[in-house]
Amino acid sequence: ETLRYEIQKQEGSKVTVRRSCNLQTAPIEGKNIKLQLATAGTFEFDTEKGLITLYESKGKLSIQQDNVSIDLPLQVNFKLLSDEERQQIEQKKQDQIAAAKQQGIDPYELLTVEAERAERAFDRLALRIEHTVLESDFDAGFHG
Q1: How far does Cα 111 stand from its chain's mean position?
Q2: Is residue 30 left, alpha or beta, with left meaning phi > 0 and alpha meaning psi from -120 to 50?
Q3: Contact 130, 15 (CB under 8 A)
Q4: Chain segment 72-100, per-residue pLDDT in tens
Q5: What string of DSSP letters covers 76-102?
Q6: Could you give the residue ranges of the DSSP H alpha helices within 6-135?
Q7: Which residues are paired to 75 by β-bridges?
Q8: Rounded to an integer, what distance in angstroms lies between the CA atom of residue 139 and that of residue 144?
Q9: CB 20 within 8 A of CB 42
């Protein structure tokens, strides 16, 4: 395994760090399987708040067995919301609750419907891959 961190810049309390990662499985006796995870990206760390405020990373998970190779692209991005952004979201939620009450609708029923709708959307995105590599009954463990 290889993990690298490099400070790219520092402005006040914000430090931008480049991160790269390369992990792969050790050979498994009797099996011709190889898993490799490679990612690279940057994150911004706020030393005053003691937390990551921005993270962007891309990479791929490669699975190889015999003559079959599967590459799954990965992308992770997030940003810590500012106080103003959090207040706007909270205000929008309060406005929606008030509008629901005016129409005689229980706002918590709306939240349940919205959660179920999000869950169904996520279910539709689920990968339906059938392959022995993905169904293996062994502990792959990442080692160098």
Answers
A1: 24
A2: left
A3: no
A4: 999 999 999 888 988 998 898 888 888 88
A5: EEEEPPPHHHHHHHHHHHHHHHHHHHH
A6: 83-102, 107-125
A7: 58
A8: 15
A9: no
Q: Which two tokens stand for residue 124?
A: 């539709």
Q: Which residues, in sequence order, are CB contacts of 96 under 8 Å at separation 6+?
A: 107, 110
Q: 93 is written with which tokens?
A: 């939620």
CA distance 14 to 54: 10
Residue keyed to tokens 């937390």:
51
Distance CA 8, CA 90 (A): 35
Distance in angstroms (rounded) separating the CA atoms of residues 1 and 21: 8
Joined tokens for residue 83: 């106080």
Q: What is the pTM of this model?
A: 0.59
Q: Tell me: the pLDDT tens digits for 4-55?
A: 999 999 999 999 999 999 999 887 777 888 899 999 999 999 999 899 999 9
Closest CA to 58 of 43, 78, 38: 38
For residue 65, the tally of other CB atoms under 10 A from its CB is 17
Contacts of residue 69, defined as CB under 8 A and 6 or more positions apart, other chains included, come to 62, 63
Distance of CA 101 to the CA centre of its chain: 36
Structure tokens at 107: 């706002």
